Amino acid sequence: MQKYLEKLQTYAVSSDTSKDAPATILELLYDAYGEYHNTEDEAIREAFGRLYESMHGKTLTEEDEIIYAVCSLCREHERTGFSEGVKVGLRLASEITD
After folding, report:
1. Is residue 88, in this structure, part of any structural domain at all?
2. Model confidence pLDDT, tens digit, residues 52-94
3. Residue 10 located in a structural domain
4. Cβ atoms within 10 A of the Cβ of 55, count?
5. 27-48 pLDDT, tens digit each
């Protein structure tokens, strides 16, 4: 756990402070986790392979529009799952200590 806290602290100090920077601690935690944990596995690579195969014959612009929409959906799904998982973990920790 100490290793993750140190990485989070390093990430927080070095992260961007522009308007695109994380607005909440939970977003900062998600970004730091994503930077240090590769979540792309074989199933994801295969799914993207099938997606690219299904777009055969489309123009590059059409492919880009589809990929952008799919990747946005994936990012939001992953972010929501991460956030909800942290919330459930905190609730569980609270119930255990009560």
Report:
1. yes
2. 999 999 999 999 999 999 999 998 999 899 999 988 988 998 8
3. no
4. 14
5. 888 888 888 777 778 999 999 9
Residue 4: inside a domain: no
CB–CB of 69/30 below 8 Å? no
Cα separation, 30 vs 22, whole angstroms: 9
34 Cβ contact partners less than 8 Å away, ≥ 6 residues apart? 78
Is 41 contained in some domain? yes
Number of domains into which the chain is organized? 1
55: tokens are: 């777009």
* Residues of the domain holding 53: 33-98
**Quick one: the chain helix, strand, coil %, rounded to 5?**
80, 0, 20
